[in-house]
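tool_call: predict_structure(chain=1)
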Amino acid sequence: MNRYLIHENNMKLTGRGTYDEDGIYWCALSGSGFEFHYKGTGLDIKLVGDKASEIPDNDENWTRYALYVDGERRIDGLLDSVTKTLTLEGDIDADIKLIKLSECAMSTLGIYPIICDGVITPIPDKPLKTEFIGDSITCGYGVDVSDPNVHFKTATEDFTKGYAYKTAKLLDADVRAFSISGWGIVSGYVDSPEREPLTQQLLPPYYTKLGFSYQRFDDRDGLEPQNINHDFSKYIPDLIVINLGTNDNSWCTGHEDRYEKYVSEYVKLLENVHKCNPSSKLLCVMGIMLDEICPYVEKAAEIFSKSSGFEQIYTMRFTPHDGSLGYGADWHPSPATHDKAAVALAAKIREIMK
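tool_result:
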């Protein structure tokens, strides 16, 4: 039997928010995982959960993952125990992909070295590399539910059914995402603008980290994604899409001074993203769920471009959903709405990338 570490020398590592600790490869953010080609007769992938997997009846937070064989989803599961082994049997000559479908805040996923009776080789990179920075829309929040009155569970969240993953697929591009549901630039989601801003849920301070999770990777202090720096040299996006403002709008609406604060903080985010990725084009988008805040996104992009001299920044407005294509959980976009957004965004990216 052969033993393969989850490592870039052995396979293609996908997604942001990954970390190797004592032979266990941890995946935090939506879309993280690996891809490789396998030729052999047996394959075992052993998963390990963080602290969330130890809590019985915690199905709101268990990590959701999927295993693909030649593009076909063979296993779709929740990590409802501390460890779980995924087994493929028989003669295999196929591309294998494991992807974390749910977001980082609720739980993370560890992967032990792969045990197999065969040979693993890496999948080549795509010619176009993209990154998405966003919130629940980018995570694919509630996309597996058709009732807007149903609330959040990781079991109904699927990054591969969201507009970001679908856009990358249309473009035949690699995709990585930094997204957390409910988070914003000046405030997380609040149910009334009369409330105080939810400043505990701001995404910009964590962009240089592996992510953010309410769970540790294991019992040791400090092994949370928010305490580990992200290595920007490992993956250099050709284009970064930023889709942040839906949650901010819940606090800003009706208050021009708050929108101006949003613009100011958005400019600071753009400065940081550009500093971390100086060769990447930037595309600021908004409007899948609402478009009230769109003019302020455009204003922030204009201010940043003028102050920095960086001209390769673009903006785009989506058409807000109106229910004609259905809703997901908590009035989030349906799969059909994500499809529509992906088509529009892919066309814009083709225009930008020539």
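agent: The first strand starts at residue 2 and ends at 4. Proceeding to next step.
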